[in-house]
Amino acid sequence: MKRSLALLTLLCVSLPVCDAQPGGGRNRNSGGRGGFGGSRERIEPKDLKFEMGVAAVPDRELFVKLSYQGKDVGRDPYLADIQYVKFILEDPGTDAARLYFMNTGNYRAHPPYMGMVGISGRNVVRGAISWMPRHGNALGGAGLYVMDFQPNNSYTFEEIKTIHDALIVKAPFLKGRLGFHPLSGNLRQYEADRLKYEQAGFTVHLDSDLYGNIAFLPLNDGVSVGRLRLMDKETRPTSQDILICRSLPNQLPRIAGVLSEARQTPLSHVNLRCVQDKVPNAFIANATEDSIISSLIGKLVRYEVTADGYSIRKATAAEQEEFLSSRRPRQSQTPKRDLSVTEIRPLREISFDDSGSVGVKASNLAAMHRFKLADDMLPNGVAVPFSFYDRFMAETGLYDEARKLLENPEFKQNPERQQTALKELRKKIENADMPAELAAKLAKAQSAFPKATSLRCRSSTNNEDLPGFSGAGLYDSYTHKPDEGHLSKSVKQVFASLWNYRAYQEREFYRVDHFATAMGVLIHPNFKNEKANGVAVTDDVLYESKGNYYLNTQPGEDLVTNPDAESSAEEILLGWWAEDGHTIVRRSADATGNATLISREHLTTMRKSLGQIHGRFAKLYRVDPDSEFAMEVEFKITSDDRLVIKQARPWVF
């Protein structure tokens, strides 16, 4: 996700609208000689030049042109990078009422502006309208505008309704989308009038609503062009489809964009792939009920997601062709692989620099064993090197079969044929005999674990977990149960997953050499009956607050990376420092009462461990730890209440 200021957009209405002079350059807010006293000749709203303001705002496009969003806010630092328009309403509720929408890009303080247009200052309402793209409005859609006033102002419900109605008359696009945010001076009066607001269905935004009533959430900013399709059980999406999902699928091949009606976890494999592939992804409440969106289903569209909202419109075939050609690499890519390592090694003998032979997943887990994290926090295991996969594929003749398949013209042109043929290839890989020498080494590795131990066999390729390319969810992992015999059974299943459709399609798009891609296998004892599974990022990558880690946790064995359709993950912002505590952004529907899925004790351990992981990996990756760098860490709470970290990879910004 691009570095936006979406959280500040939410915070803007929790602070008073003060009158500030923009800093630096020519002071355009100084007004004329009349100043605040209004000694200048009156300028009626209809006579305003656009550089000063307007009398009416018919649509959002004009609102944007009038707004200011930047850092030049003088003594109003809380308005930095917030989109807002200030207004002045004189003599509200009378025949003499005048409404001025200030060109806030040029004039950001009420008093000198009033002097410039000749307003005396008596019976005048001074306010601002701020754009809150993430919050729901009375129409059931995303995007709420909020009016607030001077911090000490106190207006009754009737007065607020009068101001609201006056704004709607001159800015009709606000109808159903405009709410009221009572500041400190108005809170007591609001409480007295609360029933009137509720009976009138009048939208009120309180400071406590900061993370509530979310109707739009940009999971990944971006622009895409593709065919808008409604995802269902029969849909077979392609890289040229923009999908509307009522719930987010656990796995998807490469696609062009996502609109989901269910609130997503930003750490799902689907979203991590969107981040990696630079395709737009957003939660949009009731998306299919939006007449604009529903009218475009089945058509080519241009879809854009930003921190300030989303846009979607009809597109042309030429736009799509230009877009696709701009995104796909022009040159083929050959991932590095080291086939010189021919032995299965325990993690304690593997270092960060061994990723070329065992994959980043295995080498990063091995590296963390040297970080001196809390006791029993990391699983012990072994890594099967790339050379095993390469030798297996060569000696069984499966490389030749794969080459013949990929050269078939029908295979190249038909996505359905690709899915069927790749499934057949995977079956052949799973059923082939493991070369005797490799089988013996796998048996020896299996015997090193205690008897009756279920083993987790996890993919660890040279085409995932890389800086700038996470490869999240491309390949599959399997659990080898004690009654399944030789370990080669599950290892071959992991080998076969290198040829699943989504992985093939992703490599094809990026022109990655399929035959230089190699599969290693990370093996460690399997965890079962977990209390919780989670993912943490060593930066707040969703709300973009400062000084926080972002944690997503699901109950039991429901993975954050592959959540059930009806899951609602727990979201916590964990302060970098103990004194900053933590903020519960969203509770899990499965938590009891006010309990959290991750305990305070584990949060304390997590805070310390994430700091170590961030700093040590920054050194290993040779980056500034204070730069745009973060690590994504998968963890779980075991059945015996241990906090275990099972994976760490660079977050793709």
How many beta-strand elements? 24
Strand order of the largest sheet: 7-11-10-9-8-12-13
Structural class designation? alpha+beta
Radius of gyration: 29 Å
Q: What is the domain total for the residues?
A: 4
Span of the ends, CA to CA:
6 Å
Pick out the low-confidence regions.
Answer: 1-38
Strand content: 15-25%
Give the integer mean of the pLDDT values.
87
- Report the principal-axis shape: elongated
Give the biggest beta sheet: 7 strands, mixed
Helix content: 25-40%
Task: Quickly count the helices.
Answer: 18
Question: Which features characterize this protein?
Answer:
disordered N terminus; 4 domains; alpha+beta; Dna Ligase, domain 1; Glucose Oxidase, domain 1
Give an overview in words.
With 653 residues, this protein is an alpha+beta fold. It folds into four domains: 6-209, no CATH class; 216-327, Phosphohistidine domain (Glucose Oxidase, domain 1, 3-Layer(bba) Sandwich), CATH 3.50.30; 345-525, Dna Ligase, domain 1, CATH 3.30.1490.20; 532-650, ATP-grasp fold, B domain (D-amino Acid Aminotransferase, Chain A, domain 1, 2-Layer Sandwich), CATH 3.30.470.20. The strands form four sheets. It has a seven-stranded mixed sheet. Helix 6 (269-277) links the parallel strand 10 and strand 11 (281-284). The chain contains 18 helices and 24 strands. It is 27% helix and 21% strand.
Overview in brief:
The protein has 653 residues and is of the alpha+beta class.
SSE layout:
Elements (H helix, E strand, L loop, with lengths): L5 H6 L41 E2 L5 H7 L17 E7 L7 E5 L7 H8 L6 E13 L5 E8 L7 H14 L7 E3 L6 H14 L15 E5 L1 E9 L10 E5 L11 E4 L8 H9 L3 E4 L6 H5 L4 E7 L2 E6 L2 H11 L17 E2 L8 H4 L1 H9 L13 E3 L1 H10 L2 H9 L2 H5 L1 H17 L4 H12 L7 E7 L16 E3 L7 H9 L4 H9 L9 E7 L6 E6 L10 E8 L14 E6 L6 E5 L13 H21 L10 E7 L5 E8 L3
Helix pairs in contact: 12-14, 14-16
